[in-house]
Design brief:
heterodimer; A: 264 residues; alpha/beta; Nucleotidyltransferase, domain 5; 2 domains; five-stranded mixed beta sheet; globular; B: 434 residues; Rossmann fold; four-stranded parallel beta sheet; 20 helices; 8 strands
Chain lengths: 264, 434
């Protein structure tokens, strides 16, 4: 009997991720920039994942799209929210996880899950860019750093600069003032990380933090934010091997379960 | 060439011309004819009847066939009907303005008039429409201090703008017999002042008749709500939210009572399989929801999305008939009791108790609290409500949004939260993959 192959495509605001799975085994995973065209980014990511696994589109039994651009993935069999997908993906990676904190490009979420990865409750902040990947992107640009360099810069800080504003625009003005005052760049970076941690911890505590805690999404790749958040929460944070693909992974897992049920 | 929307916008900004259109009897003759042609397209005939009633009342207000009194939500509007006046709800007008797509411009006018963007968008919209002179001129304004504390303050400003008196009710935060008598005394005083201001004769028989109509409306809406206990739901709750016009403006009118009776009869026929489609209930029903507070009235996909995904508003907080029968022989005491008995004008535990009761009665799968930005009364207790109802076993979504102002939120985020909540319900109800 041929084993089922499923795909999960997570079209986020900054990156589009694709995961191909065969009966619980990851065949390939791809992360690309979404750019201005969500639909073509999804097609491209799916194509690259197929090539990496040496498969054709017709080999795939079911595709589930997730992320803010999920509705634009015309070749998907169905669409599931990133909230459910991050829950399912996190539980699959670490079954003891009960709280998932996902900080993506344009929003942040705190998700409570049960032992099977089913979402029990969630909170989502998407009113503005505060506390999201976009916030860090804007600040990195202002500080003449690459996004990936922020974590390393944070490690060099002796203390954190005070950043009071949650709003990206106001915080950027504060950063400009701090630069003008000659505050060392690492201290500004740490201050920014603390600001995100503060906001995210508020979201997680409002939901009710239950151990264990996993952090997903692109911002989880920044060790400065992870450390600051861990301190604010007073909890250890589990990091997946590749935090950015957890949504796509969850989508592929849901596709597998859904397709298996339909085949019965 | 200017399109219809462009033309309407142009009209909105040209207040002189807009007013001429709104206050011309010809407008209502022409549009009334168009409205009659749409009768077969309404999901419920009672909705069409309500549309005609609202349309006629709007015409009556703008053309000036009777003195217009503005009444804020939850004010016992029976007093105005009992004097033969024309009640006008600015909050309902704001919802219509948003539905027609003029919310943003109108709110901007309100903001330019000095109203902060942090206050309720219903009020900003009303202030904008008033400052543009697009609302019918009131002979008096009626507001009460309970449930919506912003309304009496807004009405105070608007009373000064129009040079009309504000007749305000002070509702104490308890329902002791003394408090009821205190409110009843105020109601009588307001009724007499209203008669004096508008030049009407205070006729107690006419007031008793208005209370009788209001009681008939109450009983018929209760009958409607009993019928709505059926699974699948015999009507769309989203449609039912449209009847808020009757709750805010119609109570005390003969028309509202008749429309409610017609609605009950129509649902009875539907339940018996004798409706237009022959179906007894909503065929797409997958999840039954209890909907708290209101919904977005501006162009927003939320409600359509809920229905497309199989969500049915089995019951709404605003459709709940919470007050006891009215006695036409004791109009002021009856109306005082009714006004004071609102479950949200009590400790939050009472709102929780009533919502839990409705959730059980209507066998809902989940509860959505639409937290309208700017409404401190409704949103203030949302967290406690969520925790308490969740502890009783219902998944609860506190969905932050705005009824009128679409500028303050991304629709995508709202739909994601709604879809994720429906996914939780699916997992719980069907125990299967999403």
């Amino acid at each position: 009997m041929r084993l089922m192959i499923t795909a999960g495509i997570d079209v986020g605001s900054l990156s589009t991720d694709a995961v191909l799975m065969r009966d619980g085994e990851t065949l390939s995973q791809i992360i690309i920039n979404t750019g201005a065209m969500a639909r073509s980014a999804a097609e491209r990511a799916f194509g690259l994942a197929l090539s990496a696994a040496g498969l054709r589109a017709s080999d795939v039994d079911a595709v589930i799209a997730t992320g803010y651009g999920r509705m634009s993935v015309s070749f998907a069999d169905s669409q599931v929210t990133e909230i459910s997908c991050h829950g399912r993906g996190s539980a699959w990676l670490s079954p003891k996880v009960r709280t998932v904190i996902d900080i993506g490009g344009q929003d942040s979420k705190a998700i409570r899950i049960d032992g099977k990865g089913n979402v029990v409750d969630f909170l989502m902040n998407d009113k503005c860019a505060a506390g999201t990947g976009r916030f860090l992107e804007v600040m990195a640009q202002r500080l003449e750093l690459e996004l990936a360099e922020l974590g390393r810069e944070d490690q060099q800080a002796a203390r954190a600069a005070q950043i009071s504003s949650m709003c990206t625009v106001f915080a950027e003005s504060e950063v400009v003032s701090l630069i003008a005052q000659g505050v060392p760049r690492p201290e500004i970076v740490r201050g920014l990380h603390l600001s995100i941690a503060e906001r995210t911890a508020g979201l997680a505590n409002r939901l009710g933090l239950a151990p264990e805690v996993m952090m997903t999404g692109g911002v989880a790749k920044n060790p400065g934010v992870v450390r600051a958040l861990s301190e604010k929460l007073g909890a250890k944070i589990i990091l997946p091997p590749e935090p950015q693909i957890v949504g796509a992974l969850g989508a592929a897992l849901i596709a597998q379960q859904k397709h298996a049920r339909q085949s019965v | 060439m200017m399109d219809v929307e462009g033309f309407m916008r142009h009209m909105l900004w040209d207040r002189r011309r807009w007013n001429r259109v709104l206050s011309s009897p010809l407008t209502y003759t022409l549009l009334g004819g168009v409205l009659r042609l749409t009768r077969g397209n309404w999901p419920l005939d009672a909705m069409y009847q309500m549309g005609v009633f609202a349309f006629n009342e709007t015409g009556r207000a703008y053309v000036g066939k009777a003195p217009v009194v503005w009444s804020s939500a939850f004010f016992p509007v029976e007093l105005a009907w009992g004097l033969g006046l024309c009640p006008f709800s600015p909050e309902v007008a704001a919802a219509y303005i948003a539905t027609l797509g003029f919310g943003e411009e109108t709110m901007s006018m309100g903001e330019q008039a000095g109203y902060s963007r942090d206050i309720c968008s219903f009020h900003r919209c009303i202030a904008g429409a008033a400052s543009a002179g697009n609302l019918p001129r009131p002979a008096a304004l009626l507001a009460s201090t309970h449930l919506c504390d912003g309304a009496p303050l807004l009405f105070q400003n608007l009373a000064a703008l129009y040079g009309a008196p504000l007749l305000a009710l002070d509702i104490p935060y308890n329902s002791s017999p003394e408090a009821v008598r205190y409110v009843a005394g105020q109601l009588e005083q307001v009724w007499l002042s209203l008669a004096d201001v508008t030049g009407q004769r205070p006729d107690r028989d006419k007031l008793a008749e208005a209370v009788r109509c209001s009681e008939r409306f109450r009983a018929q809406m209760q009958r409607v709500n009993e019928l709505r206990c059926r699974v699948p739901s015999p009507v769309s709750g989203n449609d039912m939210l449209g009847f808020i016009y009757l709750f805010f403006v119609g109570q005390g009118s003969r028309e509202a009572a008749e429309i409610a009776a017609g609605l009950a009869k129509e649902i009875e026929r539907r339940v018996a399989g004798l409706g237009r489609s022959g179906q007894t209930g909503t065929q797409t029903e997958k999840y039954r929801l209890l909907w708290m507070h209101l919904k977005p009235y501006y162009n927003n996909e939320l409600m359509k999305f809920v229905e497309q995904d199989g969500g049915v508003l089995a019951m709404e907080e605003f459709s709940h008939v919470y007050w006891t029968p009215l006695d036409p022989e004791q109009p002021f005491l009856s109306l005082a009791r009714k006004t004071m008995s609102h479950f949200a004008f009590k400790p939050v535990t009472e709102r929780i108790r009533v919502m839990a009761e409705l959730a059980r009665k209507y066998r809902v799968d989940g509860i959505v609290h639409f937290s309208h930005h700017g409404c401190r009364t409704a949103s203030g207790g949302a967290l406690m409500i969520k925790e308490a109802l969740r502890d009783e076993g219902w998944p609860v979504l506190v969905l932050e949004g705005d009824c009128i102002d679409g500028r303050s939120e991304a629709c995508g985020g709202m739909l994601t939260r709604m879809q994720a909540f429906l996914e939780i319900l699916q997992e719980r109800k069907l125990g299967c993959a999403l």
